Amino acid sequence: MIKAAIMGHGTVGSGVYEVFEMNAEKIARVVGEPVEVKYVLDLRDFSALPYGHKFVTDFSVIENDPEITVVAEVMGGVGAAYEFTRRCLLAGKSVCTSNKELVATRGEELLKIAEEKGVNYMFEASVGGGIPIIRPMLQCLAANEFNEICGILNGTTNYILTQMIHNGVTFADALKQAQLNGYAEKDPTADIEGHDACRKICILADLAFGDKFDPDQVPCEGITKITLEDVANADKLGCVIKLLGRTVRCEDGTAYAYVAPHLIHKESPLAAVEDVFNAIMVNGNATGDVMFYGKGAGKLATASAVVADMMDCIEHAGHRRRISWGDGSKNLLRPLDTLQSAWYVRFKGASRDLEALLPVESLTEPVEGVTVVKTRKLSTAEMQEKIEKLNACGEVRAAMRML
Ligand code: HSE
User: Fold this and answer.
1) How remote is the CA of residue 154 from the centroid of ligand 1, in Å?
2) How far apart, in whole angstroms, are the C-alpha atoms of residue 256 and residue 332?
3) % the chain with pLDDT above 70
4) CB-ligand 1 contact for 283 (6 Å cutoff)
């Protein structure tokens, strides 16, 4: 009998317990023996649950129990979660997590400790919830150089945008619904301001390019400024608005990485990704585009990825997965200034100023003084300069990249 522990009994943690219960036979068949969740760590009172007797509030019970060989860290955050993960690894226990904030900010350090102790630190659930993406990048696509990764990486914002696009629901109401469904982070700021997607694109860039991309350095813009007017304008241009995390390799080995809302053409496979679903497009230099699609958030979908990692650790006990990246000292993150894009601009002011300043591809007739423009490609630095000039003679109400 294998003994496991779960640290954190929130949405994902309770899901991890449920998956172990629901699929006990299948899990035992795959790993070769039954797995028992011996402890669940949480400070809150869950004594009324049928498995209430398994709850502990003292982490050292898990740390000091030699029977526990694998632990799920589903607490979130970088405080206690970091400390407990570090101590589990130092105690020779493998740790599997959905905690993207911790992986993105301290992953390289924790992977190094795991390596030194001959155990595993695995994080399939940290990007794309239930979608397999980490393992495919490490294994199936390992023979490729990665050219570009571009994805809808946050279920909450995709759900909100879908509600705005199809049902004309306000941003606030759609956010409330996402929270009720358990998609949103405790503090929805991380979702709606793009920080959650930013952590995820950083993890994918770390894996793709082998050095740390620091979420604090990666440009990040969320969806809070998007209005139903932009949604309608996008539709007229044959596009939908999606929040994308994107990283693109440059010839000199550096890479752009950023999170921002984009207008994408309705024919793009990413445009059809709706509600809480996520999709990640990976372009490898041998495979071309490969797309991963599925539920990017939610209790059981995310828990299934955590449990699968735990099964992998159990099945391959004593063997290490070779996962690592550098500490960021290679400075691979390239500033966005030179990134070329076509832009959508909503401008209140004289159309002639727009035409004088921007390389216009198409523009609408002004409605109440507001004109919508699609530009030809120009760099981020050029666009910023144009926005400043346009704001001197009118008001740029929205500007988004188009893909
Ligand atoms: N809040 C996250 C999302 C959860 O909405 O995608 C999964 O990381």
Assistant:
1) 5
2) 8
3) 100
4) no
pLDDT value of residue 86: 98
d(CA 285, CA 144) in angstroms, rounded, equals 6
pLDDT band per the 50, 70, 90 thresholds, residue 321: confident
Q: List 245's β-bridge partners, or say none.
A: 151, 259
The letter for the amino acid at 338 is T
The reply to whether ligand 1 has any atom less than 6 angstroms from the CB of 155 is yes
Instruction: Convert the pLDDT of each residue in 131-183 to its tens digit.
Output: 999 999 999 999 999 999 999 999 999 999 999 999 999 888 889 888 888 77
Q: Are 240 and 271 in contact (CB under 8 A)?
A: yes
Q: Which amino acid is at 60?
A: S
Q: What is the 3-state secondary structure (H, E, C) of 64-104?
A: CCCCEEEEEECCCCCCHHHHHHHHHHHCCCEEEECCHHHHH
Q: How far is the CA of 372 from the centre of ligand 1 (A)?
A: 32
pLDDT in tens, 188-247: 999 999 999 999 999 999 999 999 999 999 999 999 999 999 999 999 999 999 999 999
Atom of ligand 1 nearest to the CA of 157: 5
Q: Which of 38, 93, 200, 295 is catalytic?
A: 200
How far does the centroid of ligand 1 lie from the alpha carbon of residue 339, in Å?
Answer: 27
How crowded is the C-beta side of 252, counted as CA atoms within 13 Å?
7
Is 186 a residue of the active site? no
In angstroms, the CA 306 to CA 12 distance is 9
The pTM for the full model equals 0.96
- Taking the CA of residue 296 as reference, the ligand 1 atom at the shortest distance is 6
- DSSP assignment of 216-243, as one string? TTS-B--STT--HHHHHHHHHTTEEEEE
For residue 265, report the phi and psi dihedrals to the nearest 5 degrees.
-65, 145
Domains of the chain: 2-129+299-315 (3.40.50.720), 134-295 (3.30.360.10), 336-402 (3.30.70.1150)
* Ligand 1 within 6 A of CB of 258: no
